[in-house]
């Protein structure tokens, strides 16, 4: 995208990954003039670790509002993908065949069933269909499962997409909507100025009426500048990608999925390693071993790539969406499910930001939930 000719915008979005891009795309649809300030390819991008799932089952234990928010986004994904294709001509290959979580012991089956029961028994929970399936039922849908699979949970609301095409479609749509994408613009300071904000970067300053912090890990540093809090931490996850093979898996599995291009993605690690993205062979081996137990044919495929990336997690694992009380017009948005929640960020969150305030329904997502004095 070319450098902008204007110096003032309705909204400055800090962060050009999936979260920031979806919000900016939605803001442009609301008629807002928008600039995205992106750190560039040196950034620690959580988007590198996404699994391209639009996943509902199991999310929200401990925060039923998050379960409802997740379901709402998944339900909106078909329309979201259609709008992107109409605007850009890019098919993000979204499908919603339902998703499986294979289980390798009776103990795992009982643990999963208990988790889903407790999730759906929460007060104010938006319930949805799911099933606990025995081996025969799983094998009927996925005949390539291994002998160790004893059952699975299944939810018809789960799906997946091509996340690289999603990011491309968003940025193509941003360009066609006149959004200014400003790479290599790490924000050093944010200051209130003339009823709006002044964002200072090494490449110059940008002024805007509103500002949205969607900078992933860097939101922790930036949020206090506008009277907000984003207590996020990194969680390392490994991903393995195999060579392309004939289609065998039409359903996304929680940690295994065959892409529309034929390769298989595998990822199932959760590591507290700070900002270290080193690939650990032992972790990769453990992930691969479980995947092969579920689908033995994976053992015959060559691995073409493996890497580690850093998810963005809050203390309880749920998102933060909040507006500043001391600096109206400043917002923070952070989550670890940038693909699943992309439809909501574009179609549900962005209109509220454009209007200048978040409704009370977002109160549960405030970072004030981590304030000890508030909790007491």
Write the layout of secondary structure elements.
Blueprint: E1 8-14, H1 18-29, E2 34-37, E3 53-54, H2 64-88, E4 99-103, H3 106-120, E5 131-134, H4 135-141, E6 151-155, E7 159-160, H5 163-176, E8 180-182, E9 187-193, E10 196-201, E11 204-213, H6 219-222, E12 233-242, E13 256-258, E14 264-266, H7 281-294, E15 303-313, E16 320-323, E17 330-334, H8 342-355, H9 372-375
Parallel strand pairs: 1-2, 1-11, 2-8, 11-17
Antiparallel strand pairs: 3-7, 4-6, 5-6, 9-10, 10-11, 12-14, 12-15, 13-14, 16-17
Pfam family, one: DAO
Domain FAD dependent oxidoreductase: 10-350
Keywords: Oxidoreductase
Note the beta-strand portion: 15-25%
- Quaternary assembly: single chain
Class computed from helices, strands and strand pairing: alpha+beta
Biggest β-sheet strands, sense, barrel: 8 strands, mixed
Number of helices, where a helix is a run of at least 4 consecutive DSSP H or I residues: 9
Elements, N to C (H/E) = EHEEHEHEHEEHEEEEHEEEHEEEHH
Radius of gyration: 21 Å
């Amino acid at each position: 995208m070319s450098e902008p000719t204007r110096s003032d915008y309705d909204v400055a979005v800090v962060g050009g990954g999936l979260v920031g891009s979806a919000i900016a795309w939605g803001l442009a649809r609301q008629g807002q003039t928008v600039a995205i300030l992106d750190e560039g390819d040196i950034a620690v991008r959580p988007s590198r670790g996404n699994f391209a799932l639009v996943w509902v089952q199991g999310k929200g234990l401990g925060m039923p509002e998050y379960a409802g928010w997740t379901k709402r986004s998944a339900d909106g994904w078909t329309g979201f993908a259609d709008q992107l294709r109409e605007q850009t001509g890019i098919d993000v290959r979204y499908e919603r065949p339902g998703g499986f979580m294979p289980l390798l012991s009776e103990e795992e089956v009982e643990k999963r069933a208990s988790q889903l029961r407790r999730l759906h028994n929460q007060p104010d929970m938006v319930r949805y269909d799911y099933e606990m399936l025995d081996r025969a039922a799983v094998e009927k849908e996925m005949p390539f499962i291994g002998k160790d699979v004893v059952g699975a949970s299944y939810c018809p609301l789960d799906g997946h997409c091509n996340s690289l095409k999603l990011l491309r479609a968003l940025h193509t749509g941003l360009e066609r909507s006149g959004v200014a994408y400003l790479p290599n613009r790490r924000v050093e300071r944010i200051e209130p100025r003339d009823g709006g904000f002044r964002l200072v970067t090494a490449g110059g300053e940008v002024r805007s009426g509103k500002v949205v912090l969607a900078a992933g890990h860097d939101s922790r540093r930036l949020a206090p500048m506008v009277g907000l809090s984003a207590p996020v931490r990194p969680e390392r996850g490994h991903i393995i990608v195999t060579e392309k093979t004939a289609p065998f898996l039409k359903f996304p599995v929680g940690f295994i999925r065959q892409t529309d291009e034929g390769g298989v993605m595998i990822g199932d690690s959760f590591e507290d390693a700070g900002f270290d993205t080193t690939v650990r062979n032992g972790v990769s081996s453990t992930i691969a071993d479980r995947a092969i137990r579920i689908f033995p044919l994976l053992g015959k495929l060559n691995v073409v790539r493996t890497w580690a990336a850093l998810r963005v997690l809050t203390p309880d694992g749920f998102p933060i969406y909040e507006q500043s009380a001391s600096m109206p017009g400043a917002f923070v948005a952070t989550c670890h499910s940038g693909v699943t929640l992309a439809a909501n960020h574009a179609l549900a969150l962005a209109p509220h930001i454009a209007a200048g305030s978040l409704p009370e329904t977002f109160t549960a997502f405030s970072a004030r939930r981590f304030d000890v004095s508030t909790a007491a």
